[in-house]
What we know:
Blueprint: H1 2-6, E1 10-16, E2 19-24, H2 28-36, H3 41-46, H4 52-64, E3 67-68, H5 69-75, H6 83-95, E4 99-108, E5 114-124, H7 125-129, H8 139-153, H9 159-166
Antiparallel strand pairs: 1-2, 3-5, 4-5
Helix pairs in contact: 2-8, 4-6
Amino acid sequence: MRVLEERNDIAYGKVFFGASGYITREWYPLFLAVRRRGMVFDEWYDEGKASQMEKNIYEAVMENGRTALHDLKRICNIHKEDASRFDRALVHLQKNLFITMCGRTQKKNKYGEGYGWNSTVFCTVEDFWKEDLTPDISPKDAFQKIHDQILKLNPQALEKDIRKFIQP
């Protein structure tokens, strides 16, 4: 989280293999091209690529702006039995670059004072970058560019792992 507070050229979220990782501003449009294939969320959902839970989360973030995890759970009316579906949906939205982590905050008591552990705050990718990152490259060309960079950094990388890294 410190990176998000100190820099504005790196995004952080659960984007690789379901685990947290960083993508720099320079590479973000390429990953957007590959993972979203030029679609906005409504198109993604209409094509059946997102669940109803993902739609609920995404709409909550869109309507409320930067939203803490504990508030998202409240807004989406998440109960204990929904927790694993909620968590999977949150990761799926991050992997497909619709939302990203953008900070942390504490819950507030009735007097507006913070208490307890910090909670992750989420926002849309567009809100995070505060600019249009619509890629000017085809998904195929973006994939190849990322692929080549991975091999440059790690010549022993396995093809199946490279593919899973670029497009989960």
